[in-house]
């Protein structure tokens, strides 16, 4: 009898959790820089009181930021305010903080990106041939997700939600092996360096940054890379030489109707 009651309680909690996550999704679907404060208050009012709810909310924010990279800054700011507003939780005797869950999600997405890239290169799955068209769809999807993730990671670092050490780990991983550079990784590297370069390029990190740019210079002259990527790497070199000042103004987040129109 007690076990049956326990199952009922778990089911009830699960239903409540599902409803709460649907509400979060609805709010995030409407989030723009213009209505930020109003919608942030709505998420707060839902009551994020368990580690499970927190995990779900962070996963949803990641998915939105990755698929709508023009709003990465807004979603990063959303994370900052949530981390300040939410209490710490305890699960299985361990402390659960917003930053810890966020870091785990960053790592999970980074590894997922690599895995999806590998899968996109497969010519068959479970013994069934994969057509070139299907492989290209997978490749484009994996590339889009990886670039969105890297941009969001960069914006989270700019908001002090991630450490500089993590940024160096990302850069080192993306640079990879010089002999066989990965095109998607190089594109992501350019995106990350453009986003965070001005913050990590300081006197204490000079030896690391100089080493990165030796590799970047070599890669920019690597005939194995498409000209598009070589030019992208040269742009990053020029950006550093110009004290990380963009030569042209970078557009900020679009309004939600502009995103839908351009989709």
From TrEMBL:
Annotated keywords: Initiation factor, Protein biosynthesis
Any single biological process term in GO: translational initiation
GO molecular function, one term: mRNA binding
Protein family membership: Belongs to the eukaryotic initiation factor 4G family.
Domain MIF4G stretches: 21-243
Protein name: MIF4G domain-containing protein
Gene Ontology CC entries for this record: eukaryotic translation initiation factor 4F complex
Organism per entry: Selaginella moellendorffii (Spikemoss)
Residues spanning the signal sequence: none
Pfam families: MIF4G
């Amino acid at each position: 009898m007690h076990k049956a009651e326990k199952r009922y309680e778990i089911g009830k909690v699960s239903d409540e959790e599902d409803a709460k996550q649907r509400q979060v999704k609805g709010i995030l679907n409407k989030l723009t820089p213009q209505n930020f404060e109003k919608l942030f208050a709505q998420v707060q009012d839902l009551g994020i009181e368990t580690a499970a709810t927190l995990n779900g909310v962070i996963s949803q924010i990641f998915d939105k930021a990755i698929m709508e990279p023009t709003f990465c800054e807004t979603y990063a700011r959303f994370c900052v305010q949530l981390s300040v507003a939410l209490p710490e939780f305890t699960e299985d005797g361990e402390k659960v903080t917003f930053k810890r869950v966020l870091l785990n999600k960053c790592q999970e997405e980074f590894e997922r990106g690599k895995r999806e890239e590998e899968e996109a290169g497969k010519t068959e799955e479970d013994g069934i041939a994969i057509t070139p068209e299907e492989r290209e769809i997978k490749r484009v999807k994996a590339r889009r997700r990886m670039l969105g993730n890297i941009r969001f990671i960069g914006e989270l670092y700019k908001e002090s939600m991630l450490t500089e050490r993590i940024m160096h780990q990302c850069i080192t991983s993306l640079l990879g092996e010089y002999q066989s550079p990965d095109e998607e990784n190089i594109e992501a590297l350019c995106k990350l360096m453009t986003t965070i370069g001005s913050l990590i390029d300081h006197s204490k990190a000079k030896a690391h940054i100089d080493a990165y740019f030796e590799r970047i210079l070599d890669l920019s002259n690597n005939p194995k890379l498409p000209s598009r990527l070589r030019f992208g790497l040269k742009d990053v070199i020029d950006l550093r030489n110009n004290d990380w000042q963009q030569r042209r103004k970078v557009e900020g987040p679009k309004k939600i109707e502009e995103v839908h129109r351009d989709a």
